[in-house]
From TrEMBL:
<comment type="function">
    <text>Vacuolar cation/proton exchanger (CAX). Translocates Ca(2+) and other metal ions into vacuoles using the proton gradient formed by H(+)-ATPase and H(+)-pyrophosphatase.</text>
</comment>
<feature type="transmembrane region" description="Helical">
    <location>
        <begin position="386"/>
        <end position="407"/>
    </location>
</feature>
<dbReference type="GO" id="GO:0009705">
    <property type="term" value="C:plant-type vacuole membrane"/>
</dbReference>
<dbReference type="InterPro" id="IPR004713">
    <property type="entry name" value="CaH_exchang"/>
</dbReference>
<feature type="transmembrane region" description="Helical">
    <location>
        <begin position="289"/>
        <end position="308"/>
    </location>
</feature>
<dbReference type="InterPro" id="IPR004798">
    <property type="entry name" value="CAX-like"/>
</dbReference>
<keyword id="KW-0926">Vacuole</keyword>
<keyword id="KW-0406">Ion transport</keyword>
<comment type="similarity">
    <text>Belongs to the Ca(2+):cation antiporter (CaCA) (TC 2.A.19) family. Cation/proton exchanger (CAX) subfamily.</text>
</comment>
<feature type="transmembrane region" description="Helical">
    <location>
        <begin position="129"/>
        <end position="150"/>
    </location>
</feature>
<feature type="domain" description="Sodium/calcium exchanger membrane region">
    <location>
        <begin position="97"/>
        <end position="258"/>
    </location>
</feature>
<keyword id="KW-1133">Transmembrane helix</keyword>
<feature type="domain" description="Sodium/calcium exchanger membrane region">
    <location>
        <begin position="289"/>
        <end position="432"/>
    </location>
</feature>
<feature type="transmembrane region" description="Helical">
    <location>
        <begin position="70"/>
        <end position="92"/>
    </location>
</feature>
<dbReference type="GO" id="GO:0015369">
    <property type="term" value="F:calcium:proton antiporter activity"/>
</dbReference>
<dbReference type="InterPro" id="IPR004837">
    <property type="entry name" value="NaCa_Exmemb"/>
</dbReference>
<feature type="transmembrane region" description="Helical">
    <location>
        <begin position="198"/>
        <end position="217"/>
    </location>
</feature>
């Protein structure tokens, strides 16, 4: 009972026992806070627990406090009604485009709450385990959507959505942050530590190499053999080998980030007058946070299945290609909470946090979620490779190079952000104009195999 018994201290319920004493954490415990946590905390707000504190039953008081903290402890609480509305729209057949739109809106506050819950768990597990939790759950929405798309054999949707997440973080989020931060701090010198950016851009370039090689390899084998289907198996083998290398690199990156060079990735502590909620004390117990995290993950999985199952219907209804929805719309809506936090800290001239959010998320997608999807598809017997096609791969590589050149000197101004934003707009227009047939949103290798069978 000690782990769930709570007392009232200054209007907030604080944990009694479980290894957390009083209302503050040591600097070592706060090391578990990463840029992702700081970004999400900018969208949180304090919950008034004065009414809950009057409930006589301890267990009921604890449950109501957790409930209020989960649903009212974020500035995005207004979007929570989209979650039940998406379920109702699905079961009562309101229209698949409506299900798609409501599911996307519902994923926005859920993604922010997952970040909040992983941070709550990190209070009890320590900075290293907390950092690992953030490294695996930071982009849980993208990973779950990719897994459901794999289950439905929508190979191109998987590739488009993951590549779109990287482009969104590098160009849209970082560009908007640098642009708005530059305008808000015209008379201040905007500086950041370029060492963290160098590590992330180096990993992104490694990921781009691993995604470029299967494309070049396919063209080389096809030109030498002259057979269209001769590249499928070798490209798969190369992609799986590259995926293993990428995962090894990501594990090394985590060791580098959480152990040997932790100081490079430590988030700035917020000023006392910041609007963001202070996170020096846990808002709920370990068992409660873990239970809510599991529940939120299940709800995200349900909405992700709705998104994957209705994406073609939304494409037909709105007259927009599946590629544009997957590359542009999905990443923007799915990461809206995290992106908003990055922009807020850029306004406050805290660019290290902004870079940690944008570059860290892009690195996590490129070096963890993408290769993990290939490995999982391998286990499921699905032919997912790293060949993202020539247009998509060119956009990805050029975006990484532009970002690396933008951040190389450790200074920022609004013009740098404006250039990144223009790059993203040009790419968005490109995929809006490109009307990819809906059949290409399915398992392309499976369709090719079926075509070969019909010819025979």
């Amino acid at each position: 009972m000690a782990s769930i018994t709570r007392g009232i201290d200054g209007g907030r319920l604080l944990e009694e026992g479980g290894g957390i004493k009083g209302g503050g954490l040591s600097k070592e415990m706060r090391h578990g806070r990463t840029a992702h946590n700081m970004s999400s905390s900018s969208l949180r707000k304090k919950s008034d627990l004065s009414l809950v504190s009057k409930v006589p039953c301890t267990l009921l008081r604890s449950f109501l406090a957790n409930l209020q903290e989960i649903f009212l402890g974020t500035k995005l609480f207004i979007l929570f009604p989209a979650v039940p509305l998406a379920v109702v729209a699905h079961y009562y057949h309101f229209g698949r485009a409506w299900v798609f739109a409501l599911s996307l809106l519902g994923l926005t506050p859920l993604a922010e709450r997952v970040s909040f819950l992983t941070e709550q768990i990190a209070f009890y597990t320590g900075p290293t385990v907390g950092g690992l939790l953030n490294a695996t759950c930071g982009n849980a929405t993208e990973l779950i959507i990719a897994l459901f798309a794999l289950h439905r054999s929508k190979i191109e949707v998987v590739k488009w959505s993951l590549m779109g997440s990287v482009l969104s973080n590098l160009l849209l989020v970082l560009g908007t942050s640098l642009f708005c931060g530059g305008l808000a701090n015209l008379h201040k010198e905007q500086l950041f530590d370029p060492k963290q950016a160098e590590v992330n851009t180096g990993l992104l370039l490694l990921g781009a190499l691993c995604q470029t090689l299967p494309l070049i390899f396919g063209y080389a084998v096809r030109n030498s053999s002259g057979e269209q289907g001769a590249t499928t198996e070798p490209t798969l083998v190369l992609s799986r080998a590259c995926s293993i290398v990428m995962l090894v690199a990501y594990v090394a990156y985590l060791f580098f980030q959480l152990k040997t060079h932790r100081r490079l990735f430590e988030s700035q502590e917020e000023d006392e007058n910041d609007d963001a909620v202070s996170e020096d004390a846990p808002a709920m117990g370990f068992a409660s946070a873990l239970a809510w995290l599991i529940g939120m993950t299940v709800v995200i999985a349900v909405l992700s299945e709705y998104v994957v199952g209705t994406i073609e219907a939304a494409s037909e209804s709105w007259g927009i290609s599946v590629s544009f929805i997957s590359i542009i719309l999905l990443p923007i809506v799915g990461n809206a909470a995290e992106h908003a936090g990055a922009v807020i800290f850029a306004f406050k001239n805290k660019l290290d946090i902004t870079l940690g959010v944008s570059l860290g998320s892009a690195t996590q997608i490129s070096m963890f979620v993408v290769p993990l999807s290939v490995i999982v598809a391998w286990i499921m017997g699905i032919e997912l490779d790293l060949n993202f096609k020539i247009l998509e791969t060119a956009c990805l590589v050029i975006s990484i190079l532009v970002t690396a050149f933008t951040l190389q000197d450790g200074t920022s101004h609004y013009m740098k952000g404006f250039v990144l934003l223009l790059c993203y707009i040009v790419i968005a227009v490109c995929f809006f104009v490109l009307k990819t047939p809906l059949t290409e949103g399915l398992n392309s290798s499976y369709l090719a195999a079926r075509k070969d069978v019909m010819v025979i």
